[in-house]
Structure formats: C-alpha cells, structure tokens
Design a protein that fits this description.
With 132 residues, the chain is mainly beta. The protein has one domain: Immunoglobulin-like (Sandwich). The chain is 7% helix and 40% strand. It has a six-stranded mixed β-sheet, with no helix packed on it. It starts with 14 loop residues before the first strand and ends with a helix.
Length: 132
C-alpha cells in the first residue's frame, strides 16, 4: 500500500498500521471461501495486535477482495472515526463498522479505554516504544 498524507498535514501522532481485507477461493469456483485481514485466517485469535490503552491508533484499510463486490470491517467493542478514501482531515463518520467496495481505501482512528479480548490486546507498551 502506498500512503500519501495531505500536504501540511495536521493529523495527530498515532501508532499506525496497514490492514488489507482479502478473501481466498480455495476450491476455484470463483467465490471466496475464507475472508481475512492481513492475510492469515484466524491468526489474530491467538496473536492479537498489541496496542496501548488510550493511545490513538490509525489504520490504513484497503479492501482487496477479488470475487465479492463489498466487504465489511467491524471494530469489536469500540467506535472509530472513518475517513473515506483518506483524502480529508475531517472524518466522514463515527461508527463501529464500515462497508467498502472492491479496491476502496479508508483510514480508521480510535483508542481503547478498557482491556478485553478484541482483535487488539491492550498493553502499557505502545507499538512505537517497541519499535524504537
């Protein structure tokens, strides 16, 4: 994914990641049998993404399904600001689910206040701190 921030951006600092929604046609009937985010089916059940409580998270999301016209992304137990196509500094909506057409892109921004069994695991250590 190629990310271009708006000129003179005013986006607040955040831990950022790219997520690609995709599907797999395992029986070659031109219909997806499995749907994933970031390519591995059920991977995040046992390997949740670690994020810091109350830290702003920014996800650059792309829908790369081949056989379905639309796909949904749902953030468990939380709401997010959604920037359609990522071309604005003002969110288009505040929601917990977004429906995207094939090849559509967008940006999600959110924080988690409460620990729990989500796609993400809340920790005291942020992604930036681990990377640095």
């Amino acid at each position: 994914m190629y990310i271009v921030d708006p000129k003179n951006t005013t986006r607040p600092p955040a831990d950022e990641m790219v997520m690609v929604m995709n599907g797999y046609d395992t029986d070659f009937d031109t219909e997806n049998n499995f749907y994933t985010v970031k390519g591995i089916f059920n991977y995040y059940i046992h390997q949740p993404i670690e994020i810091e409580k109350d830290r702003l998270i920014r996800i650059y999301l792309a829908n790369m399904l081949e056989f379905d016209q639309i796909n949904n992304f749902h953030l468990h137990a939380n709401m997010f600001n959604f920037y359609s196509s990522g071309t604005s500094l003002t969110p288009n909506e505040y929601t917990d689910i977004v429906t995207m057409s094939q090849r559509e892109r967008g940006i999600l921004e959110f924080t988690y206040k409460y620990p729990g069994p989500y796609l993400f695991r809340l920790t005291r250590q942020s992604l930036q701190k681990k990377a640095g």
